[in-house]
Amino acid sequence: MSANTARCPMGHGTTELPEQAESRPTHVGGVQHSGAKEVPVVNWLQPAQLLADPYGSYARLRTEAPVAWVPMLNKFLVTSYAGCHEIEQDQSIFSANVSGSTMNRAIGAHPMLRKDDPEHATDRLAVNPVLRPKNIKEAWAEVFARNADIYLDELEDVGPDNADLNRDYAAPLAAKNLGDLVGLKDVDVQTVRTWSHDFIAGIGNVLDDPEIWRRCEASTEQADALINELIPHYQLHPNASMLSAWANSGLPDANIAANVKLSISGGMNEPQHMVTNIVWALSNHPDQREQVLADPTRWTAVFDEAVRWLSPIGMYPRETTVDTVLEGVRIPAGSGIAVVVAAANHDPAQFGENAADFDISRPKKSHLAFGAGVHLCAGHWAAKSAIGQIAVPKAYERFPGLRIEESRPGQWAGWVFRGLTSLPVTWN
């Protein structure tokens, strides 16, 4: 494949990418629509740019074409806060039940996140009580704290000269918390990590890598075998876990399995990245680190600002059910849409001129890191508790001076899902 040709992620051949192409107006599908702008087409966007650091591209898209057709992705990209928020408010027009869903293929099923109401609400209703703030505090905060201590001990054993915060703390802790909360009885941490990584890789597999699909199929087979054993177990021995709630909800086993695998995919990736993102952000803003260490009540603000500034979920898909107009751009029915919430969360129109900065004193504004509307992330209270109130504060309590080790560079990866896959740290 030449440097100027990109394979269409939906398998529809190739798309030419001119050397000096800019955002330019055209018509999608050859149909003109009165009362709306001609559709901007963006040919300058490149996968390497997004993987290295997408935020420069996002800023340009918001300025030049906040709703644009991107041939490389075979989708409309929406990068403004207003556009992304509008999408989340109307599932009748912007459906989560998208065609050719990589999520459905990755986990071998149709989970609630790819359904609209009332089907979505039916699947979610059973597990909502498990994930409410009061139940998280009463049933799970002690578990999260105990797990954090286990892996802080392991981080300490590695020592300040060799520690990697993701490898030695964030990743295994997120996997352990996930396994406990979901109810993956007798499954070791490494297996949970493998399943989650494989599912996430598949969900983000917009370039259709066959090896990623092979890994997904293997992990799906293993997870399904376990879930089939655990459903009858929890029907006889219910507990406070998510799987137990679903097993006793009357939902079909297929729905339960789909949503458990959905929880495995997202329930580790985002918490894991939030641990490293917060430490990375505070290390690069030592004045703000000192503020929160002097006043622990500010940890909530730290979590909220970090999840806005470095959104672990960078983009998710929707599909139009009818012809519609978004931000003045006419979008035909059946169009794929990429809701780029990482870009929306840096929009100056919502967050002010310093939207691209990390600022724990920022006036409170709604962000989209956990989505919005009916698809607001069901686990966001669990994440705030496990990570924002427990995992990160306890790490700073245990290791005074916890900070990035500059002599050992970290590694960022992804744009659909983005985070630090390696973060060497040290402490005093």
TrEMBL record:
Family per record: Belongs to the cytochrome P450 family.
UniProt lineage: Bacteria, Bacillati, Actinomycetota, Actinomycetes, Micrococcales
Gene3D superfamilies per record: Cytochrome P450
InterPro entries, alphabetized: Cyt_P450 (IPR001128), Cyt_P450_B (IPR002397), Cyt_P450_CS (IPR017972), Cyt_P450_sf (IPR036396)
Source organism superkingdom: Bacteria
Protein name, UniProt field: Cytochrome P450
Chain residue ranges for the region called Disordered: 1-33
Entries under Pfam families matching the protein: p450
Swiss-Prot/TrEMBL keywords: Heme, Iron, Metal-binding, Monooxygenase, Oxidoreductase
